[in-house]
Structures
1.
Amino acid sequence: MRIDIITVLPELLKSPFEHSILKRAIDKGLAEVNFINLRDYSNDNYKSVDDYQFGGGAGMVMMIEPIAKCINDLKSKTNYDEVIYMTPDGELLDQKTSNHLSTKKNIIILCGHYKGIDERVREHFITKEISIGDYVLSGGELAAAVLADSLLRLIPGVLSDETSALFDSFQDDLLSPAVYTRPAEFNGWKVPEILLSGNQKKIDEWRYENSVERTKIRRPDLYNKNFNPK
Ligand code: 6GU
């Protein structure tokens, strides 16, 4: 999978891809992530990419020209499956969307800034708009990193234990069960006996029940979707 991220702040974005699982995915050649500086496509000597909005009002708007030039340049070299715009008024990201997008070959992610982007970009270039939650961030970069992380870890071979993404919270609309490691007792606080029993069937049952119980308490919305469908 190849992800090309268009941003005015490439430096802000780089670090999440230089460590741990995402770094390994890139080093192994399972993923390619490129950072494209939108200012390189500016029309003027000041490298500006934003302007005052028509109709007045506070806040700058990202101009269509640099974005169009940039996206067209990328498209002239690569076929893209999706051109995604990160925006708080987009579709809320969930595991289902991540699973779906992780099967794509090439995607562009455009990071918004300021008051937003000229609506004509959204109408004519963007194929999908994604938000990572109902709160406002200063720009799309951190959201783009969240999206990219959620996609890259699903690529086969990226996680060392191939099956482990299948057991992530949300993969089946259930939260993950509680986990423990050594010591088996600390301060008198004990690890549930069953996990030390060696009985894998019983352990699997305990984990499933623990998942369901946690989901019921912490995320009744998910629980009801699973167990009390309308
Ligand atoms: Cl994608 N962008 C911004 N600026 N804020 C957000 C967001 C995206 N998702 C949630 N809040």
2.
Amino acid sequence: MESQKQFKRRFSFEFFPPKTDKGKEKLQKVRDRLAEVNPDFFSVTFGAGGSTRDRTIETVLGLHKQGISTAPHLSCVGGTREAIGELLDVYQKSGINRIVALRGDMPSGMGAAGELRYANELVEFIRERTGDTFNLEVAAYPEFHPQARNAEEDLKNFARKVQAGANSAITQYFFNADSYFYFIDRLEKMNITIPVVPGIMPIVNFTNLVRFSDMCGAEIPRWIRKQLEAYGDDSESIRKFGEEVVTRMCEKLLSAGAPGLHFYTLNQAEASLAVWKNLGLDDQKKIAF
Ligand code: FAD
């Protein structure tokens, strides 16, 4: 973990672009709650194939204007260089300085792969077109990407994104801190020393968590799964237990030198804020945990 300790810690919250007016109102309230703790940035997801293009732009620019730096996610699957270039122009003109660059997942049966096949090609394209305008974040998978040919190939593919010009990475969520520590160890042996910020999924709803985790290849350890199962419909116990488990893992990660945390908020403030509060992350402690 030595390589990670040199980086300034950064804390961020991720949203998805709301579909309805009610969703927009809700996000505004969530944004206001989370802005109070002064995160380094917000980020907004992007539906693969451009399905949320306009909503992502609207949400990003709306949040950015309100004073907290906001990073759009941008995925290349199903897209053309021209369409991605247009998006980059919009962001560049609006003073956006950070992009989360991804391949994305095309829903099955929906169109061709697109002109850029993998995230390393997207990073290369953004660098060619816009130089150093954007700080580029890429995705990292401490438990390995579900489609990777094998773990070694996945690490090499991660290295390709760094070689193409990624500045830093955010991980897929995990509930086993050792997978993150091992991943960083492997990167260090490959002389890769960019910040790799753990992505944190607060636990609020067991059914949704299982569904997401099955899709993205994140493992829910048996002891957590069994305990959550046992709580059944008792959402208060699930919340309390989830908060404790996630707080403990974050403490372990930060104490070992993780360069910050990125919360997958699912457009809800309270679960992320509860962990934040338990960690005592006021401005002072953000630096010296
Ligand atoms: P890549 O890095 O391209 O990797 C994809 C797979 O291909 C891996 O198995 C890798 O090993 C393999 N691979 C990579 N390069 C090569 C190569 N050159 N040759 C052969 N194989 C290769 N999805 C969305 O749709 N919208 C979002 O907003 C979004 N946000 C995310 C944010 C974070 C922080 C994370 C961790 C994930 C996010 N995702 C999002 C999910 C992500 O798009 C999927 O996990 C997707 O399957 C892979 O994207 P990637 O950028 O990691 O792809």
3.
Amino acid sequence: MIPGVRLVLLGRQGAGKGTQCTRLARHYVVPHISTGDMLRTASKEGSEFGLKAAEIMERGELIPDDVMIGVVDERLHKDDTKNRGFILDGFPRTVVQADALASITAAAPVDLAIDLDVPEDIVLGRLAGRRVCVDCGANYSEAAPPRYNWTCDICGGEVVQRADDTDSSIRRRLQLYAEETAPLVAWYLERDLLATVDGLGALDDVTFRLMRAIDARAEARRAEGMNRAT
Ligand code: AMP
């Protein structure tokens, strides 16, 4: 186990980021920071901010950059992330957010951004069949439901279709991914911070590929550090 990873997970909606981030967070013992989950929690709590965010999310649009940057800046200054690192899921989503993240993390920069690659025709099918637990966010699908009557196997919460997994919202989110988020693949590549991982196949196989990419980067960093020290 390598403590202290600082990761960004990129990838289309439905690529499996949430599920894989949960597994990676457990393995590397770092917080999984999902901006989508943070916004859904705020919306469930019914604050003015949460209700406004819910309305934007349901349409498949993006929350304004300055708002999201403020939320993530605050979260990354908490002790757990400062001491152990983080896995960011759903942020950055625009070049403005990527620039801001680089400033926020200037003292302890991101180690690696991973593009979890799943083709658009596959994610379309996955999103239409996706079901989630309203309490803990665990992912299920029509093809792989929870064991008992749409009740979460992990926490007993109700398992439902996400409000933004409608046809029109899915189409809009994928369009925004292509326009606003896909350019981040080149952004991280230019900074020698990108790994692309095939997101197709069994969950365990994908987790293994992700861990291999993360561990290879950590190993390279360690070797670099040793060379500098000698
Ligand atoms: P996700 O769960 O990552 O698919 O996010 C669900 C929704 O939350 C998105 O479709 C956006 O409306 C909003 N959202 C999450 N993260 C961000 C972000 N970094 N920037 C803007 N909007 C976001």
